[in-house]
Amino acid sequence: MKQQLILRIAAKFFIPFILLFALYVQFHGDYGPGGGFQAGVIFAAAFVLYALIWGVDEAKRVVPPSLLQTLAAAGVLIYAGTGVAGILLGGTFLDYGVLRHDPVHGQHLGILLVELGVGITVAAVMTTAFFLFAGRKRP
Amino acid sequence: MVELVDMVLLAFMAVVAVIVVRLRNLFSVVLVSGFFSLLSASMFVVLDAVDVAFTEAAVGAGVATVIMLGTLLLTTSEEKKASGSSLGALLVVLITGAILVYGTLDMPRYGDPDAPIHHHVAPRYTHDSPREIGVPNIVTSVLASYRGYDTLGETTVIFTAGLGLLLLIGSSLRARGKKEDGR
C-alpha cells in the first residue's frame, strides 16, 4: 500500500500520536483507566499500522524480530525482578512496600515497574504475532 | 435510561451475531466480529468497567481483527458449504443456551450489595487501598499489587503464547528461507 498517497500521509501523521497515547495509557494507569496490557497493545498497533502501509519487511527493519524476542523476555524479567528485589530488601516476593523508605512510595514504584514489564512483554508479543502471521507466504 | 442503552446494545449484539452466522464471506465475518467486540466494549463502559472496556476495544476490536485478517491471507476468503444436516448442532446449541440461561437465574441481581462478590476481599481492597497503596485507580492497585501474583502469571502466559507462536510457525519460516537461499 506504499503507493497510496493518502494512506501513507495519514499513517505518518497518526503513528507518533498512537505511540504517545500508548505511553500515556502506560504511565497514567495509576490514575485513570489503562495500564501495561492496554498500552502494550496500542504500542503494537502503531507498528502494525506501519507494517500495513510500508510492508512487513520494512517494519522488521524498524523493529528487528530478535529485538522483539529479547523485549518479550525482558518484560517478564522486569516483573519477576521487581518481586525478587522485594525479597532482597527484606520483604516478601512482589511486596513493593520495602522498595522505598515510605511503603506508599514503594507501592508506587513497584506498580510502575510491574506495569512497565507487562507493557513491554505485551507490545513485543503482539508485534511478533502480527509479523509471524502477516509475513507468511500463501502456501 | 441505562436500561434503554443496555437493551439497544444487546439487540445490536444479537443482530451482529446472527449476521456473523449468516455471512459466508470470511473477510466480512472478521470485520463484523470486530464490530461485535466494539459493541461489547461499549457494554463494559455501561457497566462501569472502563479498564475491561479498554482492553476489549484494543485487543478484541483492534489487534485480533488485524491478526485474523493476516490469517485470512493464508486461507480462502469463502466459507465452505457445510455438508449434511446441522440439526444435531442446533440441538447442542439450544441445550447449552438453555443451561446458561438457567444458570443466570441463580445469579445475584446486578449491583446487589448482598452479592457474595461484595463480601469477600472486595471491601478490604476498596477500604484500605487509598491508604496502603495510594493509587487513585483501585483497579490498578488490585491488579498490580494485591493480585500481583496473578498478573505475573498472566504476563508469563502472554510470553509463553509468543514463544509458542515462534516455535510453531516461526521456525518453519526460517527453514523455508534457508531452503530458498540454497537454491
Blueprint of the fold:
The complex is a heterodimer of chains A (139) and B (183).
Chain A lengths: L4 H23 L8 H19 L1 H7 L2 H24 L14 H32 L5
Chain B lengths: L1 H21 L3 H21 L3 H23 L14 H19 L16 H11 L5 H9 L1 H35 L1
Helix pairs in contact in B: 1-2, 2-3, 5-6, 6-7
Q: Any idea what the shape of chain A is?
A: elongated
**Radius of gyration based on Cα positions of chain A:** 18 Å
Number of DSSP E strands of chain A: 0
Quote the average pLDDT of chain B.
86
Which runs of chain B of at least 5 residues are low in confidence (pLDDT < 50)? none
- The succession of helices and strands of chain B, N to C, reads HHHHHHH
Number of E-state strands of chain B: 0
Calculate the terminal CA-CA distance of chain A, rounded to whole Å: 22 Å
> Which chains have the largest interface?
A-B, 51 and 44 residues
Beta content of chain A: under 5%
Provide an overview of this structure.
The complex is a heterodimer of chains A (139) and B (183). Chain A is mainly alpha-helical and 139 residues long. Chain A has one domain (5-134). In chain A, 76% of the residues lie in helices and 0% in strands. Chain B has 183 residues and is mostly helical. Chain B has 2 domains: 1-78; 114-183, no CATH class. The radius of gyration of chain B is 22 Å and the shape is globular. Chain B starts with a helix and ends with a helix. The chains are: A mainly alpha (139), B mainly alpha (183). At the A-B interface, helix 2, helix 4 and helix 5 of A face helix 3, helix 6 and helix 7 of B.
